[in-house]
Specification:
The chain is α/β, with parallel strands linked by helices. It has helices at about 10-15, 50-55, 125-135, 145-150, 170-185, 215-230, 265-280, 355-365, 395-410, 450-460, 485-490, and strands at about 65-70, 70-75, 85, 140-145, 190-195, 235-240, 285, 290-295, 300, 320-325, 380-385, 415, 420, 430-435, 440, 470-475, 480-485, 500, 510-515, 520, 535-540, 555-560, 565-570, 575-585, 590-595, 620, 625-630, 645-650. β1 (about 65-70) and β2 (about 70-75) form a beta hairpin. α9 packs parallel to α10 (about 450-460). It is elongated and about 85 Å long. About 55% of the residues are buried.
Length: about 650
C-alpha cells in the first residue's frame, strides 16, 4: 500500500531505531454459516446508462473455483478469468502507530477504519457494491490483520452508521458480512493477510514480516482458520499470504535460506497447509520480497520482487493453484524504497524511468514469471499500484499512463490501491464518500486518472477457453522434504530419516541435479501417466536391473520395476538413498538411453523447464521420455549424488 511521500519508507533502518510491534489479542471466533451456491452469480449491471455497454463484458458469469493454466487464471470451465481488481482496505487497520488510536488524526489520511473495510459508515453495503461494479472490476483484494482475527470487541456504532444491521459485531464478523455480500454480488474475493497488528503498513512498523511479533506456526494457523472459515463461500477464490515482506532494522527477509526469515519457506508451509487442511479450491498468491538492505547510498539495497523465483520457485501440492504477485508504485524504484528525506537514496524511481526502461524493469522484476515452459511459470498479479487524483507531478502522471499501458498491452491481472476512501482525506481512492454518503472519484468528470483507468479496464485481452499446457515444477530438498504428491503423503514416511522429494500428483520426474538435491517434474507429453492403483515401490538396491541391462557400468543403479516410472527420490546427506516408482496406466517400453550429468549439464537443446538447479550439473530426459532409473557412485572421494538417468520413450 502507498504511504505519504513525506513519510520515509524504511528510513529508520538508516538511523537505527526500532518501533515496537503491537501485541495482538488472543481470542477464538466461531465460524458463521455460509451458503454455497453451485456457481457465482452473474454480476448485476450496477452502472449508469452511459457505462452499460462498456461494462457489459465485465459482468459475465464465471464459475468458481479458479485455477491456472500456464500464465493464465481460468475458471472451473477452463475459461480465462482476468483479475481486474481493486483493494478494499480498512480491515488491516489504519492507525499510524503514534498518539491515541482513538484520534482520527492518528490514522492514515485521517481515516479511522475501526479495523473494518472503509465506507461502511457512509454508504449502505449494496450501494457500495453497485459503485464497485461501475468501475468494471471483478475482483476484490480484501486485506485483514491477524489482530482482527482474534479481536472480541465490537466496533462502535459510528463505524457502521450506514449499515445498522452490522451494529454490535466484531471486526471479524463484519468482515464475514462483507465477504458474503461480495460473493453474492458476483465478485471474486482474494483474502489478503496485510498486517499482523491492526496498524497502517509499510515502513518499520512491526509488520515487516509474516512472523514479526508472532511465530510462523501461529501465522500459518491463522491462515488455516481463515481458509476454513470461508471455504463454503464460492466467491472466495484466493489467499494472498502476506503483504510487502521487507527488512526490519536488524535483518532482511530471504528466499530459501531455511532460517526464521525465509519467506520462500514460510510461503511454502502456509500454502501446503491451506491446500491440505483447509480449502483445496483456493488460489495461493505469493508476493515477492518488497525490500532488502539499508536505503543508504553505497550500501546494498533494492527490491528483489519476484526475481529469486528464477532459480527457486514454489511447487504446491496442486500445480494449478500458484499465482505470483508484485507491487509497483511510481515513487518507488528497482533500488528506491520510496522514502524522502532520511532513507532517500539517489536511485531512480519508477516514475523517473522512460517508457522503455519501465517495461524492462517490470519484465525483469516480475513478468518474466509468465514465460511458458519454465519451472516458475505462473500468472503474475500486480495486486497493488495506484496514484492520487490530486497528483500534479508530471513524471508521476506519465508513469501512471505508462504502467497502465504496460498492464493493458500485456493482458495482465491487476488490482488498484485503494478502492474506497473518505472525501477530503484520501485522494488515491478510486471512489470517495463524504459524511452524507455522496460519492465522488474516478467515475466523475475531471479526474485525470479516468482515461488511463478506462483504457486498462476495457483493454482487449484473451477470453474464452484456455487450453491446458504442460506443467514444469521444481523439487528442492535444501532444508527438508519436498513431497508435493498427496498420494505419496497418504502412504506415510517411505524412507525414514532421509530427505524426500516427490512430484505433484499428475506429473513425473524429468530431471535431477548432481549436487544440491534438486529435481524437475512435468506432465508434458503424457499427461498423468500414473495408474489409478495406489501401489508404489521404494527402490533401494539393484534387484530390478535385468540381466544384461547394465546401463551405467560401475555405478549403483536404482531402477524401477518393469511397467513403473520414477516420481520421487530421497537423499541422506548428498548420497542417494532411494528411488520412488509407481505403476503406469499404459504399457511402458523397454528401450532406453543413459543420460550422464556428473561432469557437465546434459539436457536437450530445446529443453523446457528452465534451469531447475542453478549452479549445479543437471541431467534431463527429453519431453517424450520418462525416467526409469537413477545411477550414482559409492567410490571413495567421488561425489555420491545422482550421476546418470535411465530415460525411456513414453508409450
Amino acid at each position: 500500500m502507498p504511504i505519504s511521500p513525506a513519510v520515509p519508507r524504511l528510513a529508520v533502518a538508516a538511523v537505527g531505531f526500532l518501533l515496537a510491534a503491537t501485541t495482538a489479542t488472543t481470542a477464538s471466533a466461531a465460524t458463521p454459516p455460509h451458503p454455497a451456491p453451485a456457481r457465482t452469480a452473474t454480476a448485476p449491471p450496477h452502472t449508469t446508462p452511459a457505462r452499460t455497454a462498456a461494462r457489459a463484458t465485465h459482468q459475465a458469469t464465471w464459475y468458481a473455483p479458479l485455477s491456472t493454466r500456464g500464465r493464465y487464471i481460468v475458471d472451473a470451465h477452463g475459461d480465462r478469468f482476468r483479475l481486474k481488481g481493486a483493494n478494499w482496505d480498512g480491515a488491516q487497520g489504519s492507525w499510524t502507530g503514534s498518539g491515541s488510536a482513538d484520534d482520527p488524526a492518528r490514522h492514515h489520511a485521517g481515516q479511522d477504519s475501526h479495523g473494518i473495510p472503509l465506507g461502511l459508515d457512509r454508504a449502505p453495503l449494496p450501494e457500495l457494491l453497485a459503485d464497485f461494479h461501475s468501475l468494471g472490476v471483478n475482483t476484490i483484494r480484501l486485506p485483514f490483520s491477524n489482530e482482527m482475527i482474534h479481536g472480541t470487541a465490537p466496533v462502535p456504532d459510528s463505524a457502521v452508521t450506514a449499515n445498522p444491521q452490522l451494529r454490535g459485531r466484531t471486526p471479524l464478523e463484519i468482515y464475514d458480512a462483507v465477504v458474503d455480500a461480495l460473493s453474492r454480488s458476483g465478485f471474486a474475493v482474494i483474502l489478503n493477510n496485510h498486517t499482523n497488528t491492526s496498524r497502517w503498513c509499510c515502513g518499520i512498523d512491526g509488520n515487516e514480516r509474516w512472523n514479526s511479533g508472532q511465530s510462523t506456526g501461529r501465522w500459518a494457523d491463522d491462515w488455516v482458520f481463515m481458509a476454513r472459515r470461508y471455504a463454503s463461500v464460492p466467491g472466495v477464490v484466493g489467499a494472498d499470504l502476506y503483504n510487502e515482506v521487507r527488512r526490519d532494522v536488524l535483518d532482511d527477509p530471504n528466499w530459501g535460506l531455511g532460517d526464521g526469515h525465509d519467506w520462500y519457506g514460510a510461503a511454502q508451509l502456509a500454502a501446503d497447509r491451506i491446500l491440505t487442511e483447509a480449502n483445496p479450491r483456493l488460489l495461493v498468491v505469493i508476493e515477492g520480497i518488497n525490500w532488502t538492505g539499508v536505503p543508504v547510498d553505497g550500501l546494498p539495497h533494492g527490491r528483489p520482487v519476484l526475481s529469486p523465483a528464477r532459480t527457486l520457485s514454489h511447487t504446491l501440492v496442486d500445480s494449478h493453484k500458484l499465482v505470483y504477485s508484485a507491487h509497483f508504485y511510481g515513487y518507488t524504484g528497482p533500488h528506491h524504497s520510496g522514502a524522502t528525506g532520511i532513507g532517500e537514496t539517489h536511485d531512480a524511481r519508477y516514475q523517473d524511468l522512460s517508457r522503455t526502461e519501465l517495461a524492462a524493469a517490470l519484465d525483469d522484476e516480475a513478468f518474466f514469471v509468465e514465460e511458458s515452459g519454465r519451472h516458475y511459470t505462473a500468472p503474475v498479479w500486480v495486486s497493488e499500484f495506484g496514484i492520487g487524483s490530486g497528483e500534479t507531478n508530471p513524471a508521476a502522471r506519465t508513469w501512471f499512463g505508462n504502467v497502465t499501458d504496460y498492464l493493458a498491452d500485456h493482458d495482465a491481472d491487476f488490482a488498484f490501491w485503494p478502492l474506497a476512501g473518505f472525501e477530503g482525506h484520501d485522494d488515491w481512492a478510486l471512489l470517495r464518500y463524504d459524511g452524507a454518503g455522496h460519492r465522488s472519484g474516478i467515475l466523475d468528470a475531471g479526474d485525470w486518472r479516468a482515461a488511463a483507468w478506462q483504457h486498462l479496464v476495457d483493454a482487449p485481452g484473451r477470453t474464452g477457453a484456455v487450453a491446458p499446457v504442460p506443467v514444469w515444477r521444481m523439487l528442492g530438498t535444501d532444508h527438508g522434504d519436498a513431497v508435493a504428491s498427496l498420494r505419496v503423503r497418504a502412504t506415510g514416511d517411505w524412507d525414514p530419516g532421509a530427505r524426500k522429494a516427490a512430484c505433484p500428483d499428475g506429473s513425473r520426474l524429468a530431471g535431477l541435479s548432481h549436487t544440491g538435491g534438486r529435481g524437475l517434474c512435468t506432465d508434458a507429453g503424457a499427461g498423468d501417466l500414473r495408474a489409478t492403483e495406489a501401489r508404489q515401490t521404494v527402490v533401494t538396491d539393484e534387484r530390478h536391473v535385468p540381466a544384461g541391462g547394465d546401463w551405467a557400468s560401475g555405478y549403483t543403479k536404482f531402477q524401477c520395476p518393469a511397467g513403473e516410472f520414477l516420481i520421487g527420490y530421497s537423499l541422506r546427506g548428498t548420497h542417494v538413498s532411494a528411488a520412488l516408482c509407481v505403476p503406469a496406466r499404459a504399457a511402458l517400453s523397454g528401450a532406453g538411453r543413459t543420460v550422464w550429468f556428473d561432469r557437465s549439464d546434459s539436457r536437450p537443446a530445446d529443453a523446457d523447464g528452465g534451469d531447475f538447479a542453478y549452479g549445479h550439473y543437471k541431467g534431463q530426459c527429453a519431453t517424450d521420455e520418462y525416467v526409469a532409473g537413477i545411477a550414482f557412485t559409492t567410490r571413495v572421494a567421488a561425489r555420491p549424488g545422482p550421476a546418470a538417468l535411465l530415460c525411456r520413450t513414453l508409450p
